[in-house]
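[worker-b] picked up task from shared queue
[worker-b] task type: protein-ligand structure
[worker-b] ligand name resolved to flavin-adenine dinucleotide; SMILES cross-checked against name lookup, match
[worker-b] sequence length check passed
[worker-b] input payload:
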Amino acid sequence: MSNDVLIVGGGTVGLATGFELVRKGTPVTLFEKGKAGHGTSWQAAGMLAPDAEIGFEELELYELNRESLRRWPDFAERVETASGVNVDYRDEGTLIVADDRDSAEALRRLYEFQEEQGLNVEWLTGEEARKIEPFVAPRLSAAVYAPSDHQVDNRQLLTALREAFVAEGGTLHEETPVAAVAPDEATPAVVTEDGTRVEGKEVVVAAGVWSRDLDGLTPDAQPPVRPVKGQMIQLRRERPFDLQHVIRGPDAYLAPKSSGRIVVGATSEEMGFDTTVTAGGLYDLLEGAWEVVPGIYDLPVDDTWAGLRPASRDHAPLLGRTAAPGVIMATGHYRHGILLTPVTAEEVATLVRTGETSDWLGPFAPTRFPNAQSPSPTA
Ligand SMILES: Cc1cc2nc3c(=O)[nH]c(=O)nc-3n(C[C@H](O)[C@H](O)[C@H](O)COP(=O)(O)OP(=O)(O)OC[C@H]3O[C@@H](n4cnc5c(N)ncnc54)[C@H](O)[C@@H]3O)c2cc1C
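[worker-b] inference finished, payload out:
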């Protein structure tokens, strides 16, 4: 038995929550089934883009996204200081571009909604967009510039978080899958796959898309999280080609990192736990990216992969106490897990330390789904 907080899962959510706890003096033991940082968080694009990604029906989530972005610069600095690893925080903004009449119409609707919500966005002609980013296609008809959207290199972030967690005194068990959690008000526990039972002060489930696979939770405490597959391509910048901003076209986005990686994504597929990279997926991404930034044509392809976004039924995260005593959920971050890292980590750490659920977490209570067994209304 220990007095540690036990965290299941070493992705951006688990590592950052652990980091926020240990740096404030709360001991943490984190269990990771593989190598920490190499789950979905490794596969992401690292965009911190609440304005470009605002959803017509998701205003509560938008507020949380915005708040997390507000906290990002301080969080990045803390993690960099503790780890000595740069996370490549970049603040050039996003250009959302349209390349025909239909996509210009859709962009106009998005822009009007963004304006209505008071976002910091600007409507540009194609020519004005090219002044900001010379490599966008000459035939682009219109663009929206969202300068408040930022990005990080998520792979550098994960390396930094792992270092920072350990440097601050966190205990990290890699290659240690957790088979079950054992809820209990006083001494909740986890049971690892080799049968070892470890008791602690609280259990935080941050196992991303795999959070539902843990044994030991009654159906009303199981997180209704399902995988949504995203295929990606990594290109390498070669001069004279250059890109400074994240470019979002109608069918693909391009996120340039300072290291020269250009991440092109992403498909969105309901395929269960399948992570096959397909010819069709790559074709769609390359065509979509090439239409808005034709200069990518000659760039080398470094890598391709598919990741699994952890999506809840309403596509918002599950943050806070569950129906199971002693078990806190921090999962279901869907397409915003990198963006939502600071607010999740800080607010879940506060919940663990004080027992108080903050106003930020309130709307995202895991108990909001009355019948949690099925991951989606139709599943
Ligand atoms: C293609 C793609 C692009 C994306 N782009 C962006 C983006 O630009 N911006 C953004 O904000 N978000 C983006 N996302 C979403 C983001 O990646 C996720 O929301 C985020 O990574 C979820 O983090 P996590 O820590 O919950 O999950 P993970 O990173 O998957 O971490 C969970 C960890 O738990 C471990 N684990 C699982 N089960 C167990 C167990 N039983 N025992 C021990 N360990 C276990 C896993 O090995 C894993 O390391 C993207 C996602 C995808 C797929």
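[worker-b] attaching auto-annotations
[worker-b] The chain has a mean pLDDT of 96.
[worker-b] releasing lock
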